[in-house]
Fold:
Amino acid sequence: MTDLDLRAGQIHRGLGVVARWPDVAVVIPSDSAHDAAVDQMFHELGPEPEAPQIVAAVNQLLAAEQLRSVAMLVEATGGPMAMAYGPVEVLVDGEIVLDGSQGGVRQQVPATASRLILRAANLSKAAEPVAPYDLRRGVAPGAGLTLVTIGVVGPAKLDPEAPAPPAPPAPPSTPDPGPAVAAPEPEGEPAPEPVAASVQPVASAPPPAGADTDAPAAAQDDPTDLPIDGDGHPPAEPVDAPPAGVRSGRFPENGDDPAQSAERRAPAVEPSPLEVPFRSVVLVGSAPPIDPTPLPLAGEASGPLTPADIAAGRVEVQGVLCPRQHFNNPQAARCMVCGLSLLHLSDNLVTGLRPTLGFIVFDDGSTYGLDRAYVIGREPKPADGSPAQLLVLRDNNETLSRTHATLRLDDWTVQLVDLGSTNGTYVWDQVNEHWNQLAAGTPVALRSGDTVALGRRTFVFESVSQN
Amino acid sequence: MQQIGDYEIIQALGEGSQGQFWLARTPARMEIDDDQVAVKTVAHPASDEDFERLTDYLRRYASIDSPYLVELLDIGQQGNIIYMAARYRTGGSMAQPARPLSRVDVLRSVGRAALGAHALHEVGIPHRSIRPGNILLGDDGARLGDIGLSQLLSPGLTITGASKVNTIEYLSPELIQGQQASRASDIWALGATLHRALTGMAFYPSMPTDSLVAALRHILNERPTLSDALRNAELRIIESTVAADPADRPATGEALATEIFAEADRQARQAAS
Structure:
């Protein structure tokens, strides 16, 4: 739909806030004096703000001098509009095109640009984009954002079964490599295809059915043309940019024709360093599986545990059957499936596959079922000898250790064990209102509703047998 | 022009809970008549082993020759992105149909989706992600598409971080609790989909929306509220799909489809007479 939306977003480490929505990207380096105002702004914008709302909110903070620096990209016809205010910079394909240190500046960047970077000006070389996480929507900590086009022209024909093409010679060096784009780069780059020749602005693509193709109307919809000083009316005439060094408290209006300015200042489009080989496997005409085991019917025994199940810690345990034959924790008062009473049944133990003991909900909404054990970390490795599923958790601030903690299932209880993590594992004590740090290696049984912090990531544990 | 693999992207089609959908030109190598295909991209780093597991799984899906499933064409990987190509359906989805659907159309479309789910179940695949947006419409009727892959990419994951609160109303309680997906959990989702498509009403009208944990607790502790805009037979069918005990729901997608088609035919006859 929009050009910005077609890009993968990679966050640069550092202090500050990075935010992204389908047609707007914002980078606000940390400024401890006003961080609360920035947090408040993002909170008030909510999860799905419209572009004009975001621009207005940023301008409001600038006007109130509660924002010292911000870099922003807003989708516009012909290419994103880049804006910089304060010690921030905007790079297009490796070259700095905007530097806000002398006051607010803005410029349209070509829709064909393959790599856009918004970042704090003083960012150290060590602050590389955090890969492989792709920020698509939302607010995250960071001091910069790299937006790259998704995919590039690949070989015209590929043997569908063939592996990725062999590594061709190294790519030409770019003027400013900027922060390296980590994960998508394999050893050795493919020879850059002549991308520039085939590059077309997205605006020339057929519009979606029913879309308004009328150019003036589209220009009116351009969010950057909306009043950014909140006066409710777009200026009739272009307003001069404020003199260098003068803090206007808001972005200047179009100081010059963005199109011309882009032509003058933006570098020629170069092959993206993100050109990576791809592989495709044709699925049409796939042969039917040799063993098309149907899913069991309800009440029918499921198949034997697979090696993957066993490696994830799925095991058989002793439990009780409710009057409707559902397998349950012998300590539970009611059946977790049908709610029938389990009183006086705890003597009739039977063996069965341990059902889920509950689930954990992380701060970003991702939810995992506890029918298996987990080892959690940034790059977890199997730990403490017991089988468990590896759970990769991203953490832009690296407050998580590679292998941080494990959620172990012991009979019918869920136990949390810190694996000697750098920043510790904590359980919130609701009565005394403080975080209890776990001693490394010592299991703690979790109770339903417990909130757990691993570095800066948190999750809530919900048990099923206490409902 | 942006591209993924050798798919030239024409425009974005929308966003799912796992990734984005794009309309793309059909690459020359692909021997199909359609000029355009739908491509889904999922940002997820995958090892060779992960990719093979995914490919094997989707081959199983693609081997099913069913008029009730969206035809899968291709799976690929480029850098951190996994992409899948499927036939592009021109009629939109049940969530956003290209033309208004009559009550009978809605019933028949969900009935067809139930048969699609059944075909998947018969080769051992739960769909995991049935909802109106994943039932795609075309001249040859509705087909079930966009199979849930999050569990394959991150084993144990039941809800992705990108899920909107409004997509969790299709999740059965046992799936939220962390139980494995099953015929019965897909049948719950089909019932919830039918309810939404017939009435436009929320399944849990008083579900809190400010916190996911609170919303999930609500689903586990409350029963769905079935709208009184439903006709008797519709109400009976949907009630059967959301029985608390999975064993009390229709045993198969096929059995559910039979019920739904019978009601669609009855309503069509009534309208004709």
Q: What stands out?
A: Chain A has two domains: 4-265, 358-463. Chain A touches chain B through 90 residues (CB under 8 Å). Residues 151-274 of chain A have pLDDT under 50 and may be disordered.
